[in-house]
Amino acid sequence: MKSFIFLSLAITLFITKALGYKQTALDTFLLMNICERCDLSHANFERANLSGADLLGANLREANLREAKLVEVNFSRADLLGANLRGADLSITNLSGARLSLANLRGADLSMANLSGTDFSGADLRSANLLGAILKDANFIGANLKNTRFDKEKFCRTKTSVGIINPNCRD
To answer: In this structure, what CATH number is given to the domain that contains residue 74?
Structure first.
């Protein structure tokens, strides 16, 4: 019996490490919709409704958030490196200081989002909607912006592969 319990614990620990997140962090998040500075890397939230969630500083590296509803979520300073956000609704979301390097945001809705200081380097933003988004100090170097919609007047020290757009703007 002891060997069965030990084997079960060992398998659970191995699976948890392989998935990248701790089940307790996921359970707490699903129960309370709060997961500040927690590790949800590699978690699968495809087509989930996480609207209004607090994920401040959370680790969501390579998480699957494809077509998820993420309206008014607090992703401030969150790590979303390589996350799949294709077709996700991120409207009115706070992504200030978030890391979205190499993320898939193809066709995502980021309208009216706070993208101040957000790192989109190498991200796929093809056909994304950034209308009304705050783009102050955002980094789009190496990002694919083909057919991306955004308001040019919202640029403020915004870094792109062709240089800094509106370098002398006022905050």
So the answer is: 2.160.20.80
